[in-house]
């Protein structure tokens, strides 16, 4: 759905051949999580995120992950790198690498602290509408994923921190492009 679009339970229920009641409950749940907005009396809406908002969400992820690496030296204990990096998605190779990177980042946060991992997941969920745009805008991210995995595997807090900074700086710099692509309707079917 485009940013700012209105979501109606009846239309979604009809499209999915469901009752409107559980769809409405799901929309309320998503609104409670901050993933969509509810305007009383008007319905539910896809949030509009500015370039600044998107950049700040990426910076928050960086800060959270750097906190995780500082408070608990990065180790591969409990992180099954092969399993984390192996799963594929229907969006193509670039989308696969992006999703593998996100899984790796969640595993790093989880190894440090379950609450940090929950907060990271929430930030990733808020940026989920930009995933396809991110895959399109950033192009080949295989080297990036390899550097992330290597720094985590080596267990070097400093190397991981530097790699995370590079990873997120690239995304913050791409925020204007991500918002523009999102507004023009880039989606999984278009790539």
Description:
Helix content is 68%, strand content 4%. It has 9 helices and 3 strands; from the N terminus they run βααββααααααα. A 3-stranded antiparallel β-sheet has the order 1-3-2. The two termini are 16 Å apart. The mean pLDDT is 84.
Fraction in helix? 55-70%
Mean pLDDT: 84
CA-based gyration radius: 18 Å
SS-derived structural category? mainly alpha
Strand content is: under 5%
- Which strand order do you get reading across the main beta sheet? 1-3-2
Please summarize the sheet with the most strands: 3 strands, antiparallel
- Cα end-to-end separation: 16 Å
Number of helices: 9
Cα shape: globular
Which characteristics define this entry?
3-stranded antiparallel β-sheet; 9 helices; 68% helix; 191 residues; mainly alpha
Q: How is the topology of this model organized?
A:
Blueprint: E1 6-7, H1 9-16, H2 20-32, E2 37-39, E3 43-45, H3 51-71, H4 81-86, H5 93-112, H6 114-127, H7 131-138, H8 142-154, H9 157-183
Antiparallel strand pairs: 1-3, 2-3
How would you summarize this macromolecular structure in one to three sentences?
With 191 residues, the protein is mostly helical.
